[in-house]
User: Fold this.
Amino acid sequence: MVANVANAAAAYASTALKTSGVGMTPRDEGPSFGALLQEAAKDGIDTLKKGEALTAKAAVGQADIADVVQAVTNAEMTLQAATNIRDKVIGAYQEILRMPI
Assistant:
């Protein structure tokens, strides 16, 4: 039990040193939230374009039907996810507007 308490105290002290000061310092690691959203939007658009292109090829008999079905299903799921995210963002925005100032 003594070893666990000593380890916990050392971990607490280490964390306190990292977060000392007025506030925690912002991280400079990784992409920003805007960059993540932009990348997700580009990926979604690419998925929709791929489904559309394979559907056009299937109309003229140049694509395998299994590939077409898979691409269209992926495009449909991407569109549903984007719609659900949009609905959640609008709901959150409306909730913020209802908050008293």
Observations:
- Residues 16 and 67 are 55 Å apart (CA to CA).
- The mean pLDDT is 84.
- The chain has one domain: 31-101.
